[in-house]
UniProtKB/TrEMBL annotation:
Keywords: Methyltransferase, Transferase. One of its GO terms (molecular function) is methyltransferase activity. One of its GO terms (biological process) is methylation. SUPFAM superfamilies: S-adenosyl-L-methionine-dependent methyltransferases. Gene3D superfamilies: Vaccinia Virus protein VP39. This is Class I SAM-dependent methyltransferase. It comes from Ruegeria aquimaris.
Length: 235
């Protein structure tokens, strides 16, 4: 298993099956990120994100890593898990700039409320590493992208699951659920229509939308006016 150190904390990169992962400890946190993802987030340091919201904390490793990497003024994590992450709660005990929300589904109103309460002046970086499902991820984007500042970033991890060999059988997990690639396609087409999306970076691990000028509106997901009367294939 790979590991690295940042700011005195050891991070164990555990990207395998959840039942084989460790539990975070005060000086050693589990982080579910590949080398390429780690490089990507290091690359974002050039934008110095100071207000950060992460959806999907798992064992808290990514949240602690963002704290060490970006030294944010406000850092918020949200997860549906009900049981607090003991090591993370210990870590943030003397750090009032970090807030955690447990027992919250990403696509529910509580996500928007947590963002509004903590980021009255907008968000520099959102990381959605939660359900990886199309509907939930899209709803979360609709709620949080309007709060991202111009020049800020919105990252969605693990959008490629439906194209991997393990998901090709009709009896595989999520076989009946729409692929996340639908959302990526929608965002790419939306970028052709409005400067509110300045650019989109896509790689095998994640997609990152950079906010541009103007106001994002949910209706922008209605792409019917720019598809020449054709419809998008649902993957
Ligand atoms: C891949 S893990 C997050 C890994 C973590 N960001 C890291 O890099 O170490 C996904 C997390 O999302 C949470 N999650 C899954 N579905 C969710 C949903 N619908 N709403 C909120 N959290 C969800 C899970 O409980 C889990 O903790």
């Amino acid at each position: 298993m790979k590991k690295f150190k940042t700011g005195g904390i050891t991070f164990l990169q555990e990207i395998g099956s959840p039942d084989q992962r460790s539990v975070s400890k005060p000086d050693t946190f589990v982080i579910v990120k590949t080398d390429a993802m780690i490089d990507f987030y290091r690359h974002l340091t050039q934008y110095s994100p100071k207000t950060i919201m992460e959806i999907g904390m798992y064992e808290g490793g990514s949240l602690v890593w963002y704290d060490k990497l970006y030294k944010p003024s406000k850092l918020v994590g949200l997860d549906l898990r009900r049981k607090p992450i003991v090591a993370l709660e210990e870590y943030r005990a003397d750090k009032p700039h970090i807030a955690t929300y447990y027992g919250r589904y990403q696509d529910k109103e509580g996500t928007r409320m947590a963002a509004r309460q903590n980021f009255p002046d907008g968000i520099d970086l959102v990381v959605d590493d939660a359900s990886h499902l199309y509907e939930q991820t899209k709803m979360t984007f609709k709620m949080l992208f309007p709060m991202v500042r111009a020049g800020g970033h919105y990252v969605i991890e693990n959008w490629t699951w439906s194209h991997r060999p393990a998901y090709q059988n009709t009896d595989s997990i999520w076989a009946d659920l729409p692929a996340m690639s639908n959302l990526v396609l929608e965002l790419v087409i939306m970028a052709s229509q409005s400067p509110v999306i300045e650019s989109i970076h896509v790689d095998r691990g994640l997609v990152c939308v950079r906010k541009g000028r103007g106001v994002f509106k949910e209706e922008m997901f209605d792409l019917s006016g720019c598809l020449r009367g054709k419809s998008l294939t649902v993957l």
